[in-house]
Amino acid sequence: MAQVRQQMALPLRIELWNGQQLDFSSDIPRVTIRIPHPSAARYLLSPSLDNMGSAYVEGAIEVRGAARDMIAIVNALARTTLAQPGRAAKVVRNFVHSKAKDAEAIRYHYDVSNEFYAQFLDPAMVYSCAYFEHGDEDLATAQQKKIDHILTKIRLQQGHMLLDIGCGWGALVIRAAQRFGARCVGITLSENQYALARQRVEQAGLAHLVEIRLQDYRDIRGTFDRITSVGMFEHVGRRHLPEYFAAIARLLSDDGVAMNHGITSTDPDSGETPYGGGEFIDKYVFPQGELVHVGEVLKTMQQGGLEAYDVENLRRHYARTCALWTDNAEAQAEQMRAMGGDKRYRIWHVYLAGCSYAFDQDWISLYQIVCGKAGRHSQGLPWSRRYMYR
Questions:
Q1: What is residue 279's predicted lDDT score, i.e. its pLDDT?
Q2: How far apart are CA 120 and CA 352, in angstroms?
Q3: Cβ burial, residue 107 (10 Å; 0-12/13-18/19+)
Q4: Which letter does DSSP use for residue 11 in this model?
Q5: pTM score, two decimals?
Q6: Between the CA of residue 111 and those of 4, 116, 157, 188, 287, what are the distances in Å?
Q7: What is the C-alpha to C-alpha distance for residues 17 and 41, in angstroms, rounded to an integer?
Q8: Which residues contact 353 (CB under 8 A, 6 or more apart)?
Q9: Longest C-alpha distance within the chain, in Å?
Q10: CATH number of 99-389
């Protein structure tokens, strides 16, 4: 740590168990890390995102300060102390995915409680990247604009049958039915999402147009004019992506349109974020989640029988979305602790801020890809992208 203090000035203070304080600059500290016991000092010897995040989550160290400042400072420590060859290398994971394992992972992440998520999400409870058309929208407005942007992109029309894979709490299918009169099927593996989404459909008077199912995408049968998948394919698994896109192609009508909206790795080899961020997320947040490069998404999409029509990068939008979620989580910290416990709150606190930082630094990205069945003449496909912005 003495070497780090000499190499860089950080608005950081470390408080030791014996009352000693170590300031890393002459500025007023924006983050204070308290080491309550000598055994906890080992985390500072190798301050990776995984080590420091785990120490914070498990209560081995205490951290005071805004989450965005915490993440920036820990990253600065990691860059300075973990720069040796191999220490910051990106890891490629290949998990074994099955229906049972995927359902278990989804339940771990989403079935905390609906009330817990409501503390930091918008009122419609949209848990995916928002769309900031002008950059100054509030969260609720940006989330509705995201949904409208998607529905406009896929050219949804009255009477269309829409399948939403990973429907969350139902915001997209409800909007599709309300605005376009589309018939919708939304599927999720989360029992909490399933229950609340059905309730919201009933309250909106849309039960005649919208059906919510507790179902795996591999078990869906039928034909759909439009298919959306928003923030779900990260759970599919790298080796299963061709199978996943083949399932979409099988369910899509010959002249249908689909859209995949998902997080991607920016590492060309589909590796994880540096300094142990991916390890922390796998351990505490998204078990078995896997991110691949957008090039691999396009490749496996083609292998599954789909042709990409349009690709849009919304990385900056997700950085802002996560920053707003972090602000909400900090404002509702007391309520979230009461609902999920201190440890659960600390996990989401550092996770949301870490994601905002990772998107901002171009460690991960977010792409919307509009596609249709490959090898078709694509009749009716607009010649330009102008229709998306009417």
A1: 82
A2: 10
A3: middle
A4: S
A5: 0.89
A6: 41, 10, 33, 12, 14
A7: 10
A8: 67, 68, 70, 71, 322, 323, 326
A9: 74
A10: 3.40.50.150
Residue 47 confidence (pLDDT): 84
Q: Encode burial over 131-148: b for 16+ CB neighbours within 10 A, e otherwise.
A: bbeeeebebebbbbbbbb
Residue 85 has what pLDDT?
39
From 129, 167, 355, 371, active-site residue: 355
Question: How far is residue 184's CA from residue 212's CA, in Å, rounded to a whole number?
Answer: 8
For residue 231, give Cα distances in angstroms to 51, 128, 130, 198, 289. 27, 6, 11, 20, 11
Measured on CA atoms in the order 374, 375, 379, 384, is the torsion positive or negative?
positive
Question: What is the average pLDDT across 82-94?
Answer: 52
Torsion of the alpha carbons at 271, 277, 281 and 282, rounded to the nearest 10: 50
Structure tokens at 207: 């039960």
CA distance linking residue 243 with residue 247, whole number of Å = 6
Give the separation between CA 278 and CA 290, rounded to whole angstroms.
9
Indicate the helix (H) or strand (E) that contains 117: helix 114-118
Would you state the structure tokens that stand for residue 67, as one six-digit string?
A: 């989450």
Taken in order 357, 342, 287, 99, is the CA torsion positive or negative?
A: negative
Q: What is the DSSP letter of 285?
A: T
Residues in the chain: 390
Closest to 224 measured CA to CA, from 233, 214, 211: 211
Q: Which helix (H) or strand (E) holds 364?
A: strand 364-373
Instruction: State whether the Cα torsion 206-208-213-219 is positive or negative.
Output: negative
Query: What's the pLDDT at 153?
Result: 97
Q: Evaluate if residue 108 carries a pLDDT over 80.
A: no
Domain chopping of the chain, boundaries: 2-81, 99-389
Q: Which H or E run contains 79?
A: helix 67-81
Distance (Å, rounded) from C-alpha 326 to C-alpha 199?
27
Radius of gyration, CA atoms only, the chain: 22
Nearest to 168 by CA among 151, 190, 150, 144: 190
Catalytic residue check, 167: no
Q: Which helix (H) or strand (E) holds 350?
A: helix 333-360
Q: CA-to-CA distance for 158 and 160, rounded, in angstroms?
A: 6
